[in-house]
């Protein structure tokens, strides 16, 4: 393995674990945010007829934004830790 291709390959399991962790963390954050915003325990599902399009799309947008931000933060922290251990940045 040489250079950045090797670093990317070695980093791949770290990135996968980070993605799972981001899903768990962002899900917990979203649940709390939705509870405060809507006063309801659960967010609307796209197939629940009792919710309007606006509520369903708003919930999905908030959830998506939180997941993307959480994943970026976890990926960045993982890359920094990987670089400290190996001396190689996994994304280059």
TrEMBL record:
Transmembrane helix listed as a keyword: yes
Protein name from the UniProt record: DUF4235 domain-containing protein
Assigned keywords, A-Z: Membrane, Transmembrane, Transmembrane helix
UniProt xrefs under Pfam families: DUF4235
TM regions (residue ranges): 9-30
Top-rank lineage group of the source organism: Bacteria
């Amino acid at each position: 393995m040489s250079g950045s291709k090797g670093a990317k390959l070695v980093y791949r399991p770290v990135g996968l674990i980070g993605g799972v962790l981001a899903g768990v963390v962002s899900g917990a954050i979203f649940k709390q945010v939705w509870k405060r915003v809507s006063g309801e325990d659960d967010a609307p599902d796209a197939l629940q007829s009792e919710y309007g399009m606006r509520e369903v799309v708003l919930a999905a947008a908030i959830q998506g934004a939180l997941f993307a931000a959480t994943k970026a933060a976890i990926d960045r922290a993982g890359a920094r830790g990987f670089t400290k251990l190996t001396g190689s940045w996994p994304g280059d």
